[in-house]
Amino acid sequence: MRIVTWGFGAMGRGIAKNIIESKFMKLVGVIDKNPEFIGKDVGELLGLGNYGVRVRDSIDVIEETNPDLVVIATSSFVKDVLPQIEYAVKNHANVITIAEEMAFPFDSHPEESLYMDSLAKRYGVTILGTGVNPGFVLDTLIIALTGVCTRVDRIVAKRINDLSPFGKTVMETQGVGTTPEQFEEGLKKGTIVGHIGFPQSIAMIARALGWNITKIEEERKPIISNVYRETPVVKVEPGMVAGCNHSAKAYVGDKCVIELYHPQQIHPHLEGVETGDYIEIYGDININLSIKPEIPGGKATIAIATNMIPIVIGAQPGLKCMADLPVPRSILSFTR
Amino acid sequence: MRIVTWGFGAMGRGIAKNIIESKFMKLVGVIDKNPEFIGKDVGELLGLGNYGVRVRDSIDVIEETNPDLVVIATSSFVKDVLPQIEYAVKNHANVITIAEEMAFPFDSHPEESLYMDSLAKRYGVTILGTGVNPGFVLDTLIIALTGVCTRVDRIVAKRINDLSPFGKTVMETQGVGTTPEQFEEGLKKGTIVGHIGFPQSIAMIARALGWNITKIEEERKPIISNVYRETPVVKVEPGMVAGCNHSAKAYVGDKCVIELYHPQQIHPHLEGVETGDYIEIYGDININLSIKPEIPGGKATIAIATNMIPIVIGAQPGLKCMADLPVPRSILSFTR
Prior knowledge:
Number of domains of chain A: 2
Order of helices and strands of chain A: EHEHEHEHEHHEHEHHHEEEEEEEHHE
Radius of gyration of chain A: 20 Å
CATH topology of the largest domain in chain A: Rossmann fold
Strand content of chain A: 25-35%
Number of strands of chain A: 15
Structural class of chain A: alpha/beta
Mean pLDDT of chain A: 97
Oligomer: homodimer
CATH class of the largest domain in chain A: Alpha Beta
């Protein structure tokens, strides 16, 4: 399988490394506009030695290398990745993107979704948005667990993670290191956004279960630290904001049927907060699942984007979501 | 969707009830050979009032009712369900069966599997074996979790459940109520079998991950009770057997890569044993999952067999396993 990766940030680099190390995939091209990378050998940049493929700042890479699939890791938003997806599809390439909004764009971007679906079908390829969350923990895994339930009344899930390993951009979009006043201002201005993906996860669950969601309420609250916390990129004094406590509730009429919580902060353990993924399903049976510590976001997103490659290449054409396809599985541990 | 159920035991009854209560399925026939049920109305037998379909002891039901899918809940073994599957497929019906060996028959029954696969393709239908375990907890769920791992080295999973709600047949096949000597004899004679499904779960995981398993070791040990335990169908004095501690280890060469444990006993809490499903995955990341208490076996098998119906009807023709198909999801909670 011939693969091009588009975007050579932390996620794109991890995915490129996985593809190089896989026995049955070949990385045939890498697109990125960072001058630090352009013209350099991908293998050298990843510490794997010369590989023979250089990073280029040109979409022509796709037409020239004729890949089976393009992995797009450039942005969180449909508006940014749509032209990139369009270009890949028109070159007859399947697409996987980790843009959060693409995990389930059908409700949030109905027109764009119809367009991408018809384009993919016309060119005989598949488009998939995936990632650890949205894409797995707060949607696909929940949906799979409802599969052992006859009746589901209500779903409550929490993903409590540690932002400490992340860089400056993530700290800014989560408001880490701001004062409570700056946090409120950032929310209003849209510079602090919290988690991107609640409407997508809720819509994916709702479509799978056939629930007609009538209202979604999102809430973003500052996690004000009582202690000093610091990472290489940010310092948080007591009284300042250590993260964003973002949650979403979805209703069918008056009834709250889905509650998702995703408080993201640096060093949660400094105030005794245990990280983990928690899913509770209430129905004819109750399911009470925990994964402790949480599935690590960065590594898991890199893994799932790589692991879905053969499934996407083998899938029926169209714009798909994780719930439409066979379950992901690790593809890099082959012994035969 | 027109459905026939074949087998009206505890599982078959639950599935029939789900189908009757679904908005978009119709139960068009029920086959069972129990004289207690023959000729009686299915709705009446289920306490739902007259439904207009009577239990019949004739396979002609399938030809006469022309169902989209037949659910077979008659036996645990390929040899028993194979002729039933064959008959359904030759009548152009898709098939779901909860026969444990059918969850992944490709390795344990390669010739039969090839035959079923080619037959299904010739008639344009899909055959699936499913259930809570094998079919979900110790295979599909594990596979899905490996999807967020780049590299998987080793998998350890345990399903600790309570057999107390089950009937006489289950107690006998698990050796509940025997003396330790009778237990050993039962193992030798094959009357005590423990869990049916370890080779299937292991083979399903191995195929998904591309692992070339070279050896599987199974072990069945008596769970000898220190206290008095009893259910409506069995009494266990201290020193007698309360259940079967069944486990399986799978190797790639010298390396043990999969360990599955499934101790099944009555009233485990009487000796402080907490029930639950536990999955540990070791690789580039480690995943530590628990579901407490365990997903209840009977109800979950009824649910997943029902929930897979639309997916199986919509799937590509052939003999499939759970890892080949989109994740299951509850289909009976529709609000639209």
